[in-house]
Amino acid sequence: MKNSHVYWNQKDETMDVSVRASLQLYRLKELVWYVYDHVPFYKKKFDEKGVHPRDIRSLEDIRLLPMTTKTDLRDNYPYGLFAVPMEKIVRIHASSGTTGKPTVVGYTASDIALWSEVMARSLVSAGATKHSIIQNAYGYGLFTGGLGVHYGAERIGATVIPISGGNTARQLLVLEDFGPDIITCTPSYSLYLAEEAHKKGLNLHKLNLKYGLFGAEPWSEAMRDEIERMLPIKAINIYGLSEIIGPGVACECLEQKGLHIYDDHFYPEILNPATGEPVAPGEQGELVITTLTKEGIPLIRYRTRDLTRFLVGECACGRTYPRIDRIMGRTDDMLIIRGVNVFPSQIEEVLVQVEEASPHYVLIVDRENNLDVLTVMVEVNDRVFSDEIKGLETIEQKIRHEIQNVLGISVMVKLVEPRTIERSEGKAKRIIDNRKL
To answer: pTM for this structure?
Structure first.
């Protein structure tokens, strides 16, 4: 499949880096005055830290500013961080709130236009055109995925099928009959769709589908290979989070060599999560984002908890945005097993390379006799499933050995039959940590 370096907004997407830096500084100065004057939370934080908007004279001065956390949003639930009166808010989105109060984000009309713009950039960089038919299988509602993609697709003039998440039988019918060339959903759900299509005897090679835009959960390069083999399509990684704006904060182009982060609107820093200091170029750290142009709920140095790194060098596509690597995990999703940091993505990298295993797994953590025990429950695939205990033991031993080589700790491996692990129509649930019970 030949890559075509097409842009939605060539002027902005290929802007000279030094010119963009001047634009960023201008917008940053405007922003700090804006939040200081309109958001009491920030005025208090600035005053406590002894920093004033006049102190921001260079982009490096952003380090003088306080950080914002999800806890800050929850403490000011629901509207305490809004910078405009409610009559200017045209839409509300919120997190699920499964781990506490939801985080509530309000959008002005200008914010919606900004969101549509960056989603249009993302879709075009992922292969969409005004002639595309996009099957949007992200959920619609308070979750930002569905509407984010929807308005971006309409912005470029594409045809949207707003099917939302779930109802897999209907998803397959639409894939077969409506002829979409692009599908958008979580990467784990795309694999589930491929599995169900295979069970129903649907020949995916005969579909019109060419590209998939996948995000909302961490996924590995090996999982990309699996998606591209099973569907078959070109799988593009998109990144976003509702606190910043939703999907469209960053997105891969067809080169598939990192995600371009749209730093004319979302200024990124990658910091050591323990010290808050910048990491060396290419080193992994926590992504921290300042929204340079949002009106409704602008955020200063928001700690995303997502771990990534800046990629060095220019992209062949010609876009001049900095690139970040795929999300390697979250600082608050990180498991510590007997003193070792473990990310689900590390396990996934191993499993996808084991021929007998499927990429569907659950990590179960227990504490036995004061020792942490990690059990990796993984499905074997249809090709090798067997009731012969000896054969299963050999596969378990192989997986256990490979994981130990990567993590440096021993784990338990439990194989289960194909399609035993519950599938998700949204974000896959990968971790059961019984130590918290």
So the answer is: 0.83
